[in-house]
Amino acid sequence: MPRIVVDVMPKPEILDPQGKAIVGALPRLGFTEFSGVRQGKRFELTVDGEVTEAVLAKAREAAETLLSNPVIEDVVNVEAIND
């Protein structure tokens, strides 16, 4: 079944305490290549039938009104994936 993936991230000006905790732990675990982390959310919406432009538009609308908090988060990606 086709799916639509929606990625949501905190706005750049919003503090990300989870990301800060992760970036602090990385060097202690031997991962010294990374200097920053922002943690977001990923949603997978299953679609019955074909993913059309109209269905993608509805997914974007759902992402902006329900899946994200527009005050502190940005919807950064809405795309169809076919397995």
TrEMBL record:
Gene3D superfamilies: Phosphoribosylformylglycinamidine synthase subunit PurS. GO terms for cellular component: cytoplasm. Pathway: Purine metabolism; IMP biosynthesis via de novo pathway; 5-amino-1-(5-phospho-D-ribosyl)imidazole from N(2)-formyl-N(1)-(5-phospho-D-ribosyl)glycinamide: step 1/2. It catalyses: N(2)-formyl-N(1)-(5-phospho-beta-D-ribosyl)glycinamide + L-glutamine + ATP + H2O = 2-formamido-N(1)-(5-O-phospho-beta-D-ribosyl)acetamidine + L-glutamate + ADP + phosphate + H(+). Its EC number is 6.3.5.3. GO terms for molecular function: ATP binding; phosphoribosylformylglycinamidine synthase activity. Keywords: ATP-binding, Cytoplasm, Ligase, Nucleotide-binding, Purine biosynthesis. Pfam families: PurS. It is an enzyme of class 6 (ligase). It is found in: Cytoplasm. InterPro entries: PurS, PurS-like_sf. GO terms for biological process: 'de novo' IMP biosynthetic process. Part of the phosphoribosylformylglycinamidine synthase complex involved in the purines biosynthetic pathway. Catalyzes the ATP-dependent conversion of formylglycinamide ribonucleotide (FGAR) and glutamine to yield formylglycinamidine ribonucleotide (FGAM) and glutamate. The FGAM synthase complex is composed of three subunits. PurQ produces an ammonia molecule by converting glutamine to glutamate. PurL transfers the ammonia molecule to FGAR to form FGAM in an ATP-dependent manner. Part of the FGAM synthase complex composed of 1 PurL, 1 PurQ and 2 PurS subunits. Belongs to the PurS family. This is Phosphoribosylformylglycinamidine synthase subunit PurS. It comes from Psychromicrobium lacuslunae. The gene is purS.
